[in-house]
Amino acid sequence: MAAPPPGPAAVRVTVTRDFGGRIMVSARAAPGQSAMNALRRVAHVGTQYGGRFVSSINDLAGDPSAGYAWLYFVNGIQADRGATTYTLHPGDREWWDYRYWTDLIQVPVAIGAWPEPFVHGFGGKAPPVSVTGPCSQQLASALRSAGAAVTTRTSPYRVVVQTFGQAAAALSPSLQQGRGLTVFLDGGRVMVYRGHGGSRPDPDARGLIVGFQPRGGTGSSAEVLVAGADRSAACAAAHTLATDPAAVRLDYAVATDAAGHVVAEGGRP
């Protein structure tokens, strides 16, 4: 297999644990190979079922009885196929995370690969992205600079800035598990999933940044929703996402304060 190419064409392979809370591996790989082969070239991998299922990475093994397993994303989208059958494309971000999955088996979209999935999409298909809402111009500009095809038309890939009142229906407790939300709204309160600790409100949170799949199969749609208790808090969270991607790197979702600073990360204690 060829060496990783220079620049942005290289695949970035990251291995973490506990909802992105601890980085175990961060490396570059060549596109054109399977996600499994790329992982094998940067870590020690144990497999089951004829090599199709990852059971351990660097000697950290899944524990079915305790509800822990290895799950992976490509460009922030949780993959719907085995790593042996996903072919990596230039610029992809392959992210493996060892986490407690009993409460949330699926987290279809995580924000921790931002500005993905809006630049490279999923499966080599880079869709146009719509960006709407107050203070969204800075987000649109950041996405264009990263190489995304920003459109003024309706798109299944979208970034939306709203107030809590506008976002409440999309982020309600009744949709939390179905959409894999680790940060959501309940009666105007920002709820943060804490793994074994369940979900509880964060008293400092005035905003949030979350991702989910509105409809269809894996990779067919993706939404990142930036919301605040009021317009000012929503704009502050949007400013953070646009200007400081490192603030949300390897996060599933985040809660922010009135100034846009991250105060809690979904899934982490």
Morphology? globular
Q: How many domains?
A: 2
| Computed Rg | 18 Å
Helix content: 10-25%
Give the averaged pLDDT, no decimals.
96
Kindly name the structural category. alpha+beta
Largest sheet: spatial strand order: 10-9-11-16-15-17-18
What gap, in angstroms, lies between the N and C termini?
40 Å
Can you tell me the residue ranges where pLDDT is under 50 for at least 5 consecutive residues?
Answer: none
Q: Could you describe the largest sheet, including whether it forms a barrel?
A: 7 strands, mixed
| DSSP summary: helix tally | 5
H/E topology pattern: EEHEEEEEEEHEEHHEEEEEHEE
Portion in strands: 25-35%
Helix and strand arrangement:
Elements: E1 11-17, E2 22-29, H1 35-40, E3 45-48, E4 53-57, E5 60-61, E6 68-74, E7 77-78, E8 93-100, E9 129-132, H2 137-146, E10 150-151, E11 157-163, H3 164-167, H4 176-179, E12 183-186, E13 189-193, E14 199-201, E15 207-212, E16 222-228, H5 231-243, E17 254-256, E18 262-265
Helix pairs in contact: 2-5
